[in-house]
Amino acid sequence: MMEFPTPSAIPAAPAQAHPLSPLRQSDIDELIEVCLEQTTEALVLTRVASQVEVSHAIDMVRAAQTEDKPLDLLEAVARVQGHQEEHLGGIIRTLSDRVATLLNPSPPLIPFAGKLIAPSAFYESFERLHQMARALLVPVIFVEDTDSIGVASINPIAANLLAAKIQEGVARRFDIRPFLTVARLDYESWAFLTHKHFEL
Question: Domain range holding 66?
């Protein structure tokens, strides 16, 4: 079984910009491509989507990104496979479950996350991280004084990537390494939170 890196095991990217400066589009594009590559590998390995389906879905994600309308690969795959809107939640949950089996530890599903309050102060303090969270469609679901932070998504790989970026960004500013909780969301909670957190 292939294991994808956990946030603590992902090597920090070289510092290319001050942590308070806005992200360049190239930074966002690079982050999206890493997420697409890792998620593609997981989908194909777990045989929940064919390479052709994933390729079409990747085209959808990239097109959406150019229009500043982020789209997660799991949702795109579900749509490429022809599932109707009323069945998307269940299909995406299945895709998420299968992808999560490749992660160690496997992020748990948190059904109540949609009720948590958006961490506005954290987003304002870390604008670059907020931009990354928006691009990856991974809401920050709780922040405890930057010592303990939680992120969640339908896509556990995207959530892991953001968790690593948060650890890197907080450590660079405060010289502390926060404890990161990575969780999964059901489709409905995720759609609600991404709309609420990112004004989509």
Answer: 24-198
